[in-house]
């Protein structure tokens, strides 16, 4: 196989999944020319990419958030744009603006739209929480509808289109937390931890001496669009969909089937988009692992990154030092995997009544 996947891949599902898996392996190899460790972050980014989602990466400074996204953009033969979010950034600095042009011959004045940096295939929204909500909201239409409205006209964004944002969890002075509507547009929230000692030693060695490693572009836009189609075609059984729906519904404290700890610690649970994203990202994970069907394990693996920014804890949780991840850990232990063959959506059966596999 060449370094690039075909824009029109094989028709046989097995061959298609095998080719996607091989393409992802090549893409990971290019990323690891620069990025040491961070396997989970890279996998979740690729899952988000293949599922046609947007991702929010959260971590303290120095953990290669921006470098990973920039390196990923290098490995994709697509247009890349970086937006450094600052308190004085305006919405038009992102979407673009209309300017007045005068014809030299007729002296007639007309408006011309000058596209902003959002008109790219991969957009890095760096430190997205350091700009006011009105500027953060400039990305809402782009992320949801893949288009931008300026004046009286609407402009389509290039396809594929991804927003990959970074956020620093410390130094909260002068920052603006993302509104819930903005957070909900991100498919995954990826938490980035510190490297291991061996990885940190390798990072120090790699960055303090000359290096001639060059990242090669291995995937084009048409090929990525084909991969996204393959992901959508992967079947998800009713069993898997029911499990995703049960997990999401159990995060809502006002639902009758919500566990007691959810009612105690959670102020607001996840909406229907969460279940959609769990199933889609689970499909992408199954494909990247070379499987033709989604399993409950895929759902469990993707529940945390999909739900952690959609579950909002209350004062009780804050007082006890409980964050969204701790809530989700307990939720995954509490909500059982439904048994095969149960017509759960039609009977309205509650998660607490489900039988474990």
What does this structure look like?
With 357 residues, the protein is α/β, with parallel strands linked by helices. The protein has two domains: 13-88 and 119-207 and 219-226, Rossmann fold; 235-340, Helicase, Ruva Protein, domain 3 (Orthogonal Bundle). Helix content is 42%, strand content 15%. It has helices at residues 13-31, 39-50, 65-75, 92-95, 133-136, 140-145, 180-183, 197-207, 221-233, 238-249, 260-265, 272-288, 296-307, 315-319, 324-334, 344-347; strands at 55-58, 76-77, 80-84, 96-102, 109-115, 122-126, 147-150, 153-156, 162-167, 188-191, 219-220, 266-268, 312-313. The strands form five sheets. Strands 3-6-9-1-10 form a five-stranded parallel sheet. A two-stranded parallel sheet has the order 2-11. Strand 4 and strand 5 (109-115) form a beta hairpin. Helix 13 (296-307) runs antiparallel to helix 15. It is globular, with a radius of gyration of 22 Å. Residues 1-6 and 345-357 have low confidence and may be disordered.
Keyphrases for this structure?
five-stranded parallel beta sheet; Helicase, Ruva Protein, domain 3; single chain; 2 domains; alpha/beta; 357 residues; disordered N terminus; disordered C terminus; Rossmann fold; two-stranded parallel sheet
């Amino acid at each position: 196989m060449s370094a690039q996947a075909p824009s029109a891949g094989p028709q046989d599902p097995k061959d298609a999944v095998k080719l996607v898996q091989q393409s992802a392996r090549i893409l990971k190899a290019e990323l690891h020319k620069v990025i040491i460790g961070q396997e989970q972050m890279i996998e979740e980014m690729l899952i988000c990419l293949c599922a046609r989602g947007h991702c929010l990466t959260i971590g303290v400074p120095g953990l290669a958030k921006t470098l990973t996204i920039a390196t990923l953009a290098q490995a994709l033969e697509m247009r890349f744009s970086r937006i450094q979010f600052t308190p004085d950034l305006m919405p038009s600095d992102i979407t673009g603006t209309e300017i007045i042009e005068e014809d030299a011959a007729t002296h007639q004045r007309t408006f011309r739209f000058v596209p902003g940096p959002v008109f790219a295939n991969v957009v890095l929204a760096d430190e997205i929480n350091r700009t006011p909500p009105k500027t953060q909201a400039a990305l809402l239409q782009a992320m949801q509808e893949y288009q931008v409205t300026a004046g009286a006209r609407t402009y389509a964004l290039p396809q594929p289109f991804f927003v990959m944002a970074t956020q620093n969890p410390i130094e909260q002075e002068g920052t603006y937390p993302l509104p819930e509507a903005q957070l909900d547009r991100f498919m995954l929230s990826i938490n980035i931890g510190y490297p291991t000692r061996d990885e940190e030693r390798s990072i120090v060695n790699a960055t303090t001496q000359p290096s001639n490693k060059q990242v090669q572009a291995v995937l084009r836009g048409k090929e990525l669009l084909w991969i996204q189609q393959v992901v959508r075609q992967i079947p998800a059984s009713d069993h898997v969909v029911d499990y995703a729906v049960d997990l999401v519904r159990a995060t809502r404290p006002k639902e009758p089937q919500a566990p007691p700890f959810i009612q105690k610690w959670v102020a607001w649970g996840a909406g229907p988009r969460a279940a959609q994203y769990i199933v889609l990202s689970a499909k992408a994970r199954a494909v990247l692992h070379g499987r033709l069907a989604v399993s409950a394990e895929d759902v469990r693996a993707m529940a945390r990154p999909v739900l952690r920014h959609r579950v909002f804890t209350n004062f009780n949780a804050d007082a006890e030092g409980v964050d969204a991840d701790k809530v989700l850990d307990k939720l995954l232990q509490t909500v059982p995997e439904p048994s095969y063959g149960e017509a759960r959506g039609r009977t309205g059966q509650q998660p607490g009544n489900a039988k474990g596999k």
